[in-house]
Amino acid sequence: MLRILIITICACNVGTQRGTRPNGLISYSIPETRPLKKALGYYEDTYLNFTELSSKHGYHTEQHTVTTEDGYVLTVFRILSTCGIETGYPVLLMHGIFDTSDVWIVAGKQRGLGYLLAQNCYDVWTPNHRGNKYSRRHIKLNPDKDVKFWNYSFDEHGNFDLPAVIDYILAVTRRQKINYIGHSQGTTDFLAMASLRPKYNDKIQVSILLAPVAWMSNIVSPIPKLLSHVTQQLKIFLDSAGYSELLASHQLTHLILEYLCQVSSDDLCSATLAATTGYKSGIPGKTLAIAFGHLLSGSSSKSIAHFGQLIQSKRFQRYDEGSTGNILRYGRTTAPEYNVSRITAPVVLITGRNDWLSSLKDIATLTSKLPNLLENFVVPEPGWSHHNHVWGKLAPGLVFLKIFEYLRWLN
Predict the structure, then answer these.
(1) Average pLDDT, the chain
(2) How many CA atoms lie within 13 A of 190 on its CB side?
(3) How far apart are CA 311 and CA 383, in angstroms?
(4) Is residue 24 part of a domain?
(5) Are 345 and 372 in contact (CB under 8 A)?
(6) What percent of the chain is helix, strand and coil (3-state, nearest 5)?
(7) Quick one: DSSP state of residue 212?
(8) Which of 44, 86, 245, 321 has the most CB atoms less than 10 A away?
């Protein structure tokens, strides 16, 4: 099975390889394909970037640059309030793995949470974590040449990316707190930050976590469960072969999936979601086709390996570097768990019954350990799954109303 998987991954990119770099990294980019997509009749929103989408729908945006303590250069988009004034504290929206800030607006003006927050007078900030298409930069490292650039997982997102972005937002807005909303890995990032750097709890008015991912002992999704047995070996192979960057928007895998979703969104794209995160019931086909034009925006092999470790260890822990590596990094032979009891910021969980990544059993473990949990809201829709929170047709009534309830109550 591992051999088949490796062959599949390599075959998806072999046609565009430019040769091995001196340090082992391989660049397998494809040219800009927007003219081709226009000619083929793609939905326009599929290939528009964040600022283009926002402008098309009548929203004013700003683009900001934030540099982390360890030198990564992050792009943060800001959607300005449409009211002329701002309500409450700024709202930070943090996307999941292989996503970008686009995830908050691709559902359109009526269902994009970023738009709806701006319509309700909030100051909206949407960061992009290191490594995706908007934040593929470093003050010293070249992502196309330096393997070290890709030596990160959600641990670094929580320990470096989020603190840098939060401090930047507070400095620009001159506010004392922010409201935090995360989806999928965006929730993991928050849990890591608030555990490792507890002083940031005081900078959070409320943290609303959609489809939270921490403990992963009871995931249903077959693909992550299967891969979790070999993610460490797969990471070693990919790194040695020069493929430390995975599933990025400039790679052939993205182009193929994006095209197939345009011609068969209800079949192929829904099957892809069903096999990974749970059945896509309630997500319109057009939304899905557009969303898959923005998905697969790049991450690291270490990120995948870290989630594989969570599944296998049945613990919410930092990255296991091996006995020697753990001693060097943590001063102990085993990887320490994230101490979520240190999370004093108010937390709201919003979960789904049909979420194959964020199961209710694993959520129960998380809720038992959070000291300031306001509510674990289970969406009252049996088919509600991982991405319904951000793209679902019923999300405004079932999820966003709950979000606004807490934002207005606490501000």
Answers:
(1) 88
(2) 36
(3) 24
(4) no
(5) yes
(6) 45, 15, 40
(7) -
(8) 245
Summarize pLDDT for 230-282 with one digit per residue, the tens.
888 888 888 887 777 876 566 666 677 777 778 775 667 777 777 778 776 78
* Tokens found for residue 104: 């908050």
Joined tokens for residue 393 = 């047709």
Spatial contact of 18 and 26, defined as CB atoms under 8 Å apart? yes
**Is residue 386 annotated as part of the catalytic site, yes or no?**
yes
Percentage of residues in the chain having pLDDT higher than 70? 89
Q: Is residue 3 part of a domain?
A: no
State the alpha helices, DSSP H only, in 264-316. Answer: 270-276, 285-291, 301-313
Could you read off the pLDDT of 106-147 as tens digits, one per residue? 999 999 999 999 999 999 999 999 999 999 999 999 999 999
Please give the residue range of the domain that contains residue 340. 31-410
Is 221 marked active-site? no
Q: What's the domain count of the chain?
A: 1
Dist. CA 100–CA 94, nearest whole Å:
8
- Selecting among 184, 228, 244, 385, the annotated active-site residue is 184
